[in-house]
Amino acid sequence: MTCTTRLPKPVTDVWDWQMDGLCRGQNSAIFFHPDNERGYARAAREEKAKEICAQCPVLAQCRSHALDSQEPYGVWGGMGEDERRQIIAAARRRVRAA
Predict the structure, then answer these.
(1) Which cofactor does it need (predicted)?
(2) Based on the structure, what is the number of domains in the chain?
């Protein structure tokens, strides 16, 4: 009999959490910065995105996805790009130190 344990999981098992995200149907410009956005405008946009994330029922899954896949852009799981970079860099330093 063929071993099926190495086959990928059905896509719905992996991505279904996205259907329940509060960002679904929102303008993506809230979560992803336009070119050259800086300073107050960027901080205000990110804060608005994070307020939506804070109420989201799939916050944990979204955050886990963003860290696991090292999403480089946007607000995911209530974290901005710089916050994720810091967490990922710290994890790499721990691995190198071990």
Answers:
(1) [4Fe-4S] cluster
(2) 1
